[in-house]
Design a protein that fits this description.
Helix content: 55-70%
Structural class: mainly alpha
Strand order of the largest sheet: 2-1-3-4-5-6
Number of helices: 51
Radius of gyration: 38 Å
Strand content: under 5%
């Protein structure tokens, strides 16, 4: 309507009338169109003081409505006005003083104060009163008091402003004295004065304070402000004041006092009290209040019913909110908005969208709050959410709501989270005014779209433009540095955070801590962490996760113990991270202790935690426990299925892994790239070469998953292990990727086992071109020559290694006994119990030889006598570790050994006999897989 009138003025050539222009500026500002008001102001050539007052009032109103950008621009306009020849009145200072108060800039207030003295307005009651209000609210009590005492005229409102300042600062004696002075001034304290003083009474613990309270109550009763039968409106105002000050418990207490005083409450009372209960999340109190509403008949009042819905959703009882909503006879926009928002915030996004559609069908027109809530739901609904977001975007453009900053920010967030960053950028570029929320949303969108560099560029642009950042901005840009591992930029941002004083904010500090961790700067991460006075669960978890990710798993477990001692309760993510650390260390006992805590705290049903436990038990050699946990899971994510398939594959249970993959398909779970890595590994470790080809083809043909280098590597490994060396070589030559070193090493190992020196030499040549200083290639090539009795070539290869100053990675094995790790290398005599270990080895060899063990001297790669070759095999690191396990663990327990390299054929054969002779179950984890020896048989079926 306003725009139509403006258009009529333009058509009738009345758009130059100064009086009408001033009114148009006021109209646009009150309708929330500050940009239109400013445009009209800029076009006006013949401006008077009313024009200036109108535009300054527009900026003050916009700032009151939460637009922080209006503050500095409004103050800048006032500076421009002062330089002009226009005479300034006290009406000009009205919006300027409002801007000063909203900005919180004490220097701005002092500047206006000085200017008011210069133009002789310092004695004006309104100007002085506004300055007293500003100084008191900004904590400058001495300045406020000085100005207050200099004023010749003071009204009740001004006395109340000063009284509230004393109450907020908690200066007991000053409150008593000031209230007494107020009373003696001839002005009568009103209900606001009484409520202000009595709201501070709980702080007065002294005898003098209690006497003062009684006097104030007596005075209040005398003038009918504290009468038990007083008007319900006064009680409602008191309740509202408590809520506005954030004291929800006091508001609830006030309602109880009101009820005890037999004052009849109304629908407003119940709505306000329900808001306080919702903030405390006390559903028991909420249900009692619901009972009062039903008893009094106010539950049929739409405002009370809406407040009940809001209360139930805030206390986590969405079911009751939905039930109440479905029984309401009358629904307004607030009812629909409350329910739509509740569903979106509680994770019921589809229900939120359905409600939105029902609301449209009901004939109601959504407002900006409705659209922002639905867009929040859309951000979690993938493709369906993206389509709906576009429809809402079109609706917002059509209805003019697109200019609302909440809508634009919500659109950017929804588009980003649904993978349409281009649409998010479009919304951002077409925003008329700077909005920090939109900047933050787009930066986060870049991060989740794996475009961290663009997030950093956006922050740089924002910083160069001089725009102010908040704690969300800094936490987000720190995350951007972490995702792209930009330590230099991260340090610069950290410096800026310290400079601007955001380093005391725990949210920002946690972001910086995570940045240093992800960038590998553990020293600075530790300094940041130690500087946090009271770290929360996020900060502790970040340190635990960072230590684990940077290879300091033992440190991660120590930090966890510190966390427990500090009294901070770990959450599900903390435990998932800890379990991962335990699995990397293969620290079974530590893992079991963590599992016990998980069960105790009822986190075992969490999908992430359960998946981590499945992975941990599998990596520690307890595949049966891992499988049992998997079967007990009520809800399994794709990560759970993947962890189990990979675990079974590593343990040589290829058939079971493939069966599980089929079961996964039956359950309608769509596999991903990790699933097929597990499936192809299962084929590789179990000798299923044809099945490997089948699943490799199935991956793209049926599921549309493009094979990556890891999938080709698994296929090459499967073919090589099956002896199909030439076919494996063809796969490498025909794939669209450059062969990885691990792929070539797997094929070279297969050539060594199969004695295919021709292909082996070609593969070694390719491998040395990729990694010319990798010792393992020379070792594999030398071993291949030695295995085929080509001793001269083996010696030449070893000499090349020596000339290049390369050394073979030493093979070592270790065993964990009573939470202490015992590590062994070949012919190791450094252990304190070395004599006992060697005696045990001798006894062990005798016993297993009697059972049929014959040393396989083909694995001795030296040209020496046969007897010497046999002796060289006896003291391999895995045999020493097993010997120590036999003498140091109970005869009924499992022996768990870990080796850093692939177990040799002779040791593999010997361990089978050891498990038979001693009746012990032995689990050996080597560089490739798990071997579970029991009763003279290995789970790998002698295929590894």
């Amino acid at each position: 309507m306003g725009k139509c009138l403006h258009a009529c003025l333009i058509v009738s050539a009345q758009d130059t009338n100064r009086f009408l222009i001033n009114n148009l500026i006021n109209m646009y500002s009150k309708c929330g169109y500050l940009s239109y008001a400013r445009h009209l102001f800029e076009k006006t050539q013949d401006r008077d003081i009313v024009t200036w007052n109108s535009i300054l009032g527009s900026y003050a109103l916009s700032a009151e409505n939460g637009d922080i950008n209006s503050l500095e621009e409004g103050l800048h306009l006032f500076k421009v006005l002062r330089k002009s020849d226009t005479l300034i009145s006290k009406l000009t200072l009205t919006p300027v003083l409002k801007l000063c108060l909203q900005s919180g800039y004490i220097w701005a207030s002092q500047s206006v104060h000085g200017y008011s003295i210069k133009i002789c307005l310092e004695c004006d009651v309104f100007v002085s009163g506004a300055l007293v209000n500003i100084y008191s609210k900004l904590g400058r009590l001495i300045d406020a008091q000085t100005l207050f005492e200099e004023m010749q005229e003071r009204d009740v409102v001004l006395w109340n402003v000063m009284l509230k300042a004393y109450v907020l600062l908690g200066i007991d004696k000053e409150i008593y004295n000031f209230f007494s002075e107020f009373h003696r001034s001839g002005l009568r304290p009103d209900d606001a004065s009484i409520r202000c003083v009595l709201s501070g009474i709980p702080k007065y613990d002294s005898c003098e304070g209690k006497v003062f309270k009684e006097q104030v109550q007596a005075y209040a009763t005398k003038i009918c402000y504290y009468n038990n039968s007083s008007d319900v409106i006064l009680w409602n105002k008191t309740l509202s004041d408590y809520i506005q000050s954030g004291d929800n418990l006091a508001a609830i207490g006030c309602f109880v006092d009101m009820n005890k005083s037999n004052v009849e409450y109304d629908d407003v009372t119940l709505a306000v009290a329900l808001a306080a209960i919702g903030s405390t999340k006390n559903v028991y109190l909420g249900q009692q209040m619901h009972g009062l509403a039903v008893k009094s008949g106010y539950d049929s009042v739409i405002s009370v019913a809406n407040s009940l819905i809001n209360m139930y959703s805030k206390t986590g009882c969405l079911y009751f909110a939905q039930k109440l909503f479905s029984t309401m006879k009358e629904l307004d926009l607030v009812s629909w908005n409350s329910m739509i928002s509740s569903c979106a915030q509680s994770g019921f996004e589809e229900d939120s969208v359905i409600l939105f559609i029902d609301m449209i069908h009901d004939g109601l027109r959504p407002d900006h709050f409705t659209l922002a809530s639905v867009l929040r739901a859309c951000s979690s609904l993938a493709e369906k959410g993206l389509n709906l977001s576009k429809q809402i975007h079109a609706h917002a453009v059509k209805t003019g709501l697109i200019t609302d900053r909440f809508i634009s920010t919500s659109l950017i967030d929804a588009y980003s989270k649904n993978g349409s960053i281009e649409d998010a950028e479009f919304v951002f570029r077409n925003s008329h005014n700077f909005d920090l929320g939109s900047f933050n949303s787009l930066m986060y969108g870049y991060i989740i779209s794996s475009k961290g560099h663009q997030a950093l560029n956006l922050f740089t642009q924002m910083h160069k433009r001089g725009e102010k950042s908040d704690e969300i901005t800094f936490a987000t840009v720190a995350k951007a540095c972490a995702t792209v591992v930009r330590l230099k930029e991260g340090r610069q941002i950290h410096s800026l955070i310290i400079k601007l004083g955001f380093d005391s904010d725990l949210f920002v500090t946690s972001g910086i801590l995570d940045m240093y961790i992800k960038c590998g700067d553990t020293l600075n991460a530790e300094r940041i962490f130690n500087g946090i006075p009271e770290p929360d669960d996020v900060a502790w978890t970040a340190m635990i996760s960072g230590s684990s990710e940077n290879g300091y798993e033992e440190c991660a477990l120590l930090i966890y113990h510190r966390m427990r001692l500090s009294g901070v309760q770990p959450d599900e993510f903390t435990y998932a991270t800890l379990i991962k650390a335990a699995s990397c260390l293969t620290a079974l006992e530590q893992g079991r202790q963590i599992h016990a805590n998980v069960v105790k705290l009822d986190f075992s049903s969490d999908t992430f935690v359960a998946t981590s436990l499945i992975d941990m038990y599998a990596k520690c050699g307890y595949i049966e426990d891992s499988y049992l946990l998997f079967k007990r899971m009520d809800a399994r994510s794709i990560a759970s299925w993947n962890a189990m398939i990979v675990g079974l594959a590593q343990h040589g249970n290829g058939e079971e892994a493939l069966k599980l993959f089929q079961t996964m398909n039956v359950h309608g779970i769509k596999p991903d790239r990790v699933t097929f890595i597990g499936v192809l590994s299962a084929c590789s470790h179990s000798g299923f070469a044809s099945e490997a080809h089948k699943y490799f083809d199935l991956m793209y043909r049926t599921y549309g998953i493009e094979p990556e280098i890891e999938h080709y590597s698994c296929l090459v490994d499967a073919l090589g292990r099956a002896g199909l060396v030439k076919e494996a070589e063809n796969v490498i030559n025909s794939m669209p990727y450059e062969a990885s070193p691990s792929m070539c090493r797997a094929l070279l190992g297969a050539c060594r086992v199969r004695g295919n020196t021709e292909t082996g030499e070609k593969v070694a040549e390719r491998l040395l071109a990729i990694e010319p200083f990798d010792s393992s290639t020379y070792v594999l090539l030398s071993n291949m020559y030695a295995a085929t009795n080509r001793w001269e070539e083996a010696i030449v290869t070893r000499k090349k290694m020596k000339r290049k100053n390369m050394k073979k990675d030493p093979g070592f094995s270790w065993i964990d006994v009573k939470n202490k790790v015992h590590l062994f290398v070949v012919d190791d005599k450094s252990h304190p119990e070395a004599d006992m270990i060697y005696n045990q080895v001798e006894d062990m060899i005798i016993l297993i030889k009697e059972e049929g063990y014959v040393p396989d001297t083909d694995f001795v790669l030296h040209e020496v006598e046969e007897e010497e070759k046999e002796r060289a095999l006896y003291y391999h690191s895995e045999k020493l570790a097993i010997a120590y396990g036999l003498i140091s663990t109970p005869s009924s327990s499992m022996i768990r050994i870990i080796k850093n390299l692939r177990v040799c054929g002779d040791c593999h054969n010997a361990i089978k006999y050891v498990s038979l002779v001693y009746g012990r179950e032995i689990v050996l984890r080597d560089a490739n897989r798990f071997h579970q020896f029991k009763g003279g048989v290995c789970s790998c079926g002698d295929y590894w």
